[in-house]
Amino acid sequence: MSELSELYEAIARCQKCALARTRTHTVPGEGPEGAKIMFIGEAPGFHEDKQGRPFVGAAGQFLEQLLASINMRRDQVVIANVIKCRPPGNREPLPDEIEACRPFLDRQLEIIKPKVIITLGRFSMARFFPDASISRIHGQPAKRDGYVVIPMFHPAAALHQPRYRSLIEEDFRKIPAILAELDRVADEQPPAQPEQLSLF
Ligand code: URA
């Protein structure tokens, strides 16, 4: 069994917080181990809890449209969440729930080793930029914990608020250039000079 499947089985057995008592399914995430991009959302909602899959409701459809706008499909990326079980009534995740789930997200990152992490919304942004304001830093790649992380608005917020919608659409359009720049730097001989990392 792959390391990722082992991790997802451990998540399915998890009883570390009260969400274990109200969930239908755990929602560990999905996507190939070698994916270059990993999206991290907030928490499973109603449909995700029923199906055990992330971003399958309205926000997920919008995420798929955003991916299509840069010629990508969801099966080419990893999609996960900060917490792996649905908070009742879709309330925001509580600090102790985020803390209990954190080792799972850390391990997921360690196994997948994405080139780029895209945080969706403020809870996943806070994992890498604890005191930042999303309005100030969205769409700007930064190196955090050895990853290039791009904070973006949550697609659910963007669906309901037109001003966020155009911002997330604009931020998505930057992804291909960022990936190309990372490939260019990785191919660089001799090893990259500081100025070659100008994007970050
Ligand atoms: N919103 C999230 O943050 N994650 C999901 O999986 C679905 C909706």
Account of the 3D structure:
The protein has one domain: Uracil-DNA Glycosylase, subunit E (3-Layer(aba) Sandwich), CATH 3.40.470.10. It is 46% helix and 12% strand. It contains ten helices and five strands, in the order ααβααβαβααββααα. A hairpin with a 2-residue loop joins strand 4 and strand 5. The longest helix has 18 residues. The structure holds uracil. The site of uracil has 11 residues, from loops.
CATH superfamily: Uracil-DNA glycosylase-like domain
CATH architecture: 3-Layer(aba) Sandwich
Oligomer state of the chains in this structure: single chain
- Physical arrangement of strands within the biggest beta sheet: 2-1-3-5-4
- Strand-residue proportion: 5-15%
Query: Tell me about the biggest sheet?
Result: 5 strands, mixed
Predict the CATH topology.
Answer: Uracil-DNA Glycosylase, subunit E
CATH first level = Alpha Beta
> Gyration radius, to the nearest Å?
17 Å
Which ions and ligands are bound to the chains?
Answer: uracil
| Domains (count) | 1
Give the terminus-to-terminus CA distance: 36 Å
* N-to-C SSE string, H for helix and E for strand: HHEHHEHEHHEEHHH
Portion in helices:
40-55%
Beta strands, count: 5
Averaged pLDDT: 94
Helix count, per DSSP?
10
